[in-house]
Amino acid sequence: MLRQIAFGCTVSLANIVVHAMAMIAVIRVARRAAAKWLSRPTLRLSTVMVGTVAVLMAAHLCEIAIWSLAYAIVDVVPEGADPLYFAFVNFTTLGYGDVVPVPRWRLVGPMTAMDGVLLFGWSTAVIFEVLSLTLQRD
Questions:
Q1: CA distance 92 to 113
Q2: Shortest CA distance to 112 belongs to which of 1, 9, 3?
């Protein structure tokens, strides 16, 4: 069990680093977009929000790919199942249940879901903050 927790925490920390880097990119995109189109607040708001969400979606896709790679390295997914699909289902907490981890790695699925919830929550907070700051400029 400790091996599963250590493994899950390591992958989660890697994803937190990826997400932190994405936050830096979001801040840069938001600042650049906010500095432009001062006479067109609607265009500025649209650009800031689309840029912010695009960066965050790219970050989440990267984080899911990291989980998928981690699954493949330690053979978490049963024979014939797609690690990327399994990572997506767990990370998004969709939980179809059509693919389950091999018994010796059964805690990794919930740890992936916990990581996804944390990172989606972080993204939601950032989207809200960027929206608030952009609207304050108007």
A1: 6
A2: 9
Q: Are 84 and 65 in contact (CB under 8 A)?
A: yes
| CA nearest neighbour of 112 among 23, 18, 4 | 4
Contact 106, 86 (CB under 8 A): no
pLDDT in tens, 18-67: 999 999 988 887 777 766 656 677 877 888 888 889 999 999 999 999 99
Cα–Cα distances in angstroms (integers) from residue 67 to residues 31, 39, 44, 133, in the given order = 31, 43, 35, 33
**Pair 111, 21: CB distance under 8 Å:** no
> Cα(122)–Cα(59) distance, rounded to whole angstroms?
12
Q: How confident is the model over 71-84, as pLDDT tens digits?
A: 999 999 988 899 99
